Amino acid sequence: MASSASPETPKPKIIPGPGGYVLEDVPHLLDYIPDLPVYTNPLQDNPAYSVVKQYFVHVDDTVPQKIVVHKDSPRGVHFRRAGPRQKVYFHSDDVHACIVTCGSLCPGLNTVIREIVCGLYHMYGVKKVLGIDGGYRGFYAKNTVHLNPKVVNGIHKRGGTILGTSRGGHDTTKIVDSIQDRGINQVYIIGGDGTQRGASVIFEEVRRRGLKVSVVGIPKTIDNDVPVIDKSFGFDTAVEEAQRAINAAHVEAESSENCIGLVKLMGRYSGFIAMYATLASRDVDCCLMPESPFYLEGPGGLFEYIERRLKENGHMVLVIAEGAGQELLAESSTQKDASGNKLLQDVGLWLSQRIKEHFSKETMMTINLKYIDPTYMIRAIPSNASDNVYCTLLAQSAVHGAMAGYTGYTSGLVNGRQTYIPFYRITEKQNKVVITDRMWARLLSSTNQPSFLHPKDIIEDEVDEASPLFDNGNCNPS
């Protein structure tokens, strides 16, 4: 279904209310295709759901972005609550859905695919679901895979993605041409911030053409660097698996004199995996992340701290995120991958070599260093129980929203509730560890490491980060 009109790029749907209430709403097909037929939600006749009291979400239900506020604070920003609506804008027999996975691997991808397919089949009776092979470029360069509950039955027990994935290759015109030519009217896009930016552009082109197509994103990033949402799927699994590497490094370090166990974990721009794995393991003596600069030599530097810990304990475990200390590498790369991400140097190998050189030349102490990089092992494993449940909620929420006619949104968890978040909020910035926050203080207390910052730097950071702290809901401005 296409309209002859070519509407302008829409402005964000902001709905103000009393007491400072602001709803950052998501687009709806009715915004640019008036007089769409409305259908009764088939869930009301589904025996699995009809017995649940108040199963349908009220039209006015919203979720606040922040929980901690003052008694006199305005009500703040809200997002539309996810869930099934009493009325839907797609007849089940007319739905032709597709699913695509983009970017790097992450635990839980197959679970999300499985639950989208099963949700469409079992909740709404949708029988036509395609899997796009090989990421965005698969829309116009690859074959498709027919998906049904039998095909996806056990895929959640496997790592990776049965659909394949890739970076880049985003030709919006060709993608929307393919969507239109195939008669697809629901597009489920699973990927990180770059993928969601691509999804936003696809939605705008779909809207410009006046197509009755719901474009839905499911945020995927193992680094947990997508803003607004509580966490991304796969993160819990990554932290759990990272502890195995840390435990191995600890065993190695304890078993030899003056031994250093060095573990490199994922975290291109955000050190959440390194931080949470450190806090969970309690065996780490130092954690280095992209958000916290450090230096090697001189008083208060990393070398001095390592030497002190070795003299005190006879061993040490050091965790470093892949994006930490990139500014210290002599041959810092300016090249980028297909998704536009800067290609990083291997900081783990570099730091290993620098530590060995320092202790062989500058001190009389003989050390033994064990380096562990579990990156690809962590990315390739199936998701754990916690992430499997989360993936199910994300997928089902995405399906409910698409059937209800919403489009141009990402399904995500905000303050423990499933919500629909407009694309522009997901892509506006990256979620990062705030090194003037309480969580960072907990890490420093757990490892007993120095912050590697001078007091003047900390004061400046507090001023600079005051707004992000409040915006992220981590604390209030007082």
TrEMBL record:
Pathway: Carbohydrate degradation; glycolysis; D-glyceraldehyde 3-phosphate and glycerone phosphate from D-glucose: step 3/4. Its EC number is 2.7.1.11. The keyword Magnesium applies. Residues 98-400 form the Phosphofructokinase domain. ATP binds at R167, G168, G192, D193, G194, T195. Keywords: Allosteric enzyme, ATP-binding, Cytoplasm, Glycolysis, Kinase, Magnesium, Metal-binding, Nucleotide-binding, Transferase. Allosterically activated by AMP. Its main location: cytoplasm. It is an enzyme of class 2 (transferase). The record marks G194 as: Important for substrate specificity. One of its GO terms (biological process) is fructose 6-phosphate metabolic process. The keyword Zinc does not apply. Substrate binds at T221, I222, D223, M266, G267, R268, E322, Y376, M377, I378, R379. It is found in: Cytoplasm. Gene3D superfamilies: 3.40.50.450. It catalyses: beta-D-fructose 6-phosphate + ATP = beta-D-fructose 1,6-bisphosphate + ADP + H(+). GO terms for cellular component: cytosol. The active site is at D223 (proton acceptor). Its cofactor is Mg(2+). GO terms for molecular function: 6-phosphofructokinase activity; ATP binding; metal ion binding. Mg(2+) binds at D193. Homotetramer. Catalyzes the phosphorylation of D-fructose 6-phosphate to fructose 1,6-bisphosphate by ATP, the first committing step of glycolysis. Belongs to the phosphofructokinase type A (PFKA) family. PPi-dependent PFK group II subfamily. Atypical ATP-dependent clade 'X' sub-subfamily. This is ATP-dependent 6-phosphofructokinase. It comes from Hibiscus syriacus.
